[in-house]
């Protein structure tokens, strides 16, 4: 492996603003995810019907992904990120205001997800553009902030659920943080580059090449893989170890802890190791963690396997998104929009397919989908790196 010359990441006020905006994004994502079982109880619905909230989230992301290039051209990235946070807050408030009305909560999940996607992908494009060669490191750190904030959100939901206010009070946090951030840093943004328009205009009407769609396919595999772990790891943990579902739910914490550590370390690694080598290395780490988890019947080794898997998965989304942006020919906003569609399709189809396979063949056999996705991602990286674009 050949090291690259170290690249410096300068965290200015604009960078910290986007980091904090994505921290607010995390309060929505982990808040609504944690609240879903409590919402299901309040509504008295089946798990299948409750799962429609995840479908609504995926559809919301796809719809706003289609609109993102147009919005960016009309109002600019700065306004798009704040519009996304405002819409995200409206969505979570809808769920908090009418937690027993299924159509309203489905709408709330979809609105929150779609609008939050605007902030996520526009912010990532801004970071990549602002930091140039250090863009992958900045994106990795931004995702680390998301995960670190996300670790605390379930505890906030749990504490609210045990208080006189109820769990829905925790869904006020995204709106409160958005308002506070706008008050304190509303005037901060990345200075527009004078050469930005000139640099991207010649390619504005051209189509993306095959390398771009191959990078999008790799992103699809990575997002599908992460959500398969998020939604099904606890079930396999319970099946393998014999522990009750309530205890097995803690398995996700091990995976999330691995994500947090991996994304913090990934920011530094991305400054020193060639992107393709780092990406493939992360996929191999995930494969090793998956093997430990898949084969283990002991809780300790299962926790270890999930933590190692999280370490690898931590770099998948940041590196895959950076790769999509890198082969976009400078059209980062259009590329971010399509990336959100690839991710939305992965969220909607990956866990669903694994669940369908689990119904037919068992959860352990269904989890063989993970190494298949890893193999497809590695193959896509090797093919895409075979020749320079």
Automatic annotation (TrEMBL):
Question: Which Pfam families is this protein grouped with?
Answer: MFS_1
Chain ranges passing through the membrane: 16-39, 45-68, 80-100, 106-127, 139-161, 167-190, 210-233, 245-265, 277-295, 301-325, 337-358, 364-384
Coarsely, its chief localization is membrane
Keywords, in A-Z order: Membrane, Transmembrane, Transmembrane helix, Transport
Stored Gene3D superfamilies? MFS general substrate transporter like domains
Cellular localization per UniProt:
Cell membrane
The record's section on PROSITE patterns has: MFS
Sequence ranges assigned to domain Major facilitator superfamily (MFS) profile in this UniProt record: 1-389
Q: How does it sit in the membrane?
A: Multi-pass membrane protein
Family statement: Belongs to the major facilitator superfamily.
Q: What is this protein called?
A: MFS transporter
């Amino acid at each position: 492996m050949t090291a690259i010359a170290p690249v410096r990441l300068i965290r200015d006020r604009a960078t910290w603003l986007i980091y904090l905006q994505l921290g607010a994004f995390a309060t929505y994502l982990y808040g609504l995810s944690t609240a879903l079982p409590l919402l299901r109880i309040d509504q008295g619905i089946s798990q299948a019907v409750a799962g429609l909230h995840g479908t609504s989230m995926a559809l919301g992301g796809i719809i706003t992904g289609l609109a993102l290039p147009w919005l960016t051209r009309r109002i600019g990235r700065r306004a798009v990120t704040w519009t996304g946070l405002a819409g995200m807050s409206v969505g979570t408030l809808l769920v908090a205001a009418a937690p027993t009305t299924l159509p309203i909560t489905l709408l709330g999940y979809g609105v929150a997800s779609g609008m939050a996607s605007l902030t996520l992908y526009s912010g990532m494009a801004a970071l990549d553009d602002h930091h140039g060669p250090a863009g992958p490191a900045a994106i990795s750190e931004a995702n680390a902030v998301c995960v670190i904030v996300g670790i605390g959100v379930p505890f906030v939901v749990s504490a609210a659920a045990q208080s006189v206010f109820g769990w829905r009070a925790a869904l006020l946090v995204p709106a409160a943080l958005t308002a506070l951030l706008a008050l304190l840093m509303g005037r901060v943004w990345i200075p527009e580059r004078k050469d930005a328009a000139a640099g991207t205009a010649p390619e504005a009407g051209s189509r993306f090449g095959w390398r771009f769609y191959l990078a999008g396919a790799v992103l699809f595999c990575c997002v599908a893989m992460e959500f398969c772990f998020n939604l099904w790891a606890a079930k396999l943990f319970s099946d393998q170890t014999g522990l009750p579902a309530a205890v097995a739910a803690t398995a996700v914490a091990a995976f999330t802890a691995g994500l947090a550590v991996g994304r913090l370390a990934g920011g530094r690694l991305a400054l020193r190791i060639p992107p393709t080598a780092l990406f493939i290395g992360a996929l191999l780490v995930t494969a090793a963690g998956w093997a430990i988890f898949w084969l283990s019947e002991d809780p300790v080794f299962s926790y270890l396997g999930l933590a190692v898997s999280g370490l690898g998965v931590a770099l998948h989304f940041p590196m895959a998104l950076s790769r999509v942006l890198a082969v976009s020919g400078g059209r980062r906003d259009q590329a971010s929009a399509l990336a959100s569609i690839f991710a939305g399709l992965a969220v909607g189809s990956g866990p669903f397919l694994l669940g369908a396979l689990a119904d037919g063949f068992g959860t352990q056999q269904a989890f063989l989908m993970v190494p298949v996705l890893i193999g497809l991602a590695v193959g896509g990286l090797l093919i895409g790196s075979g020749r320079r674009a």
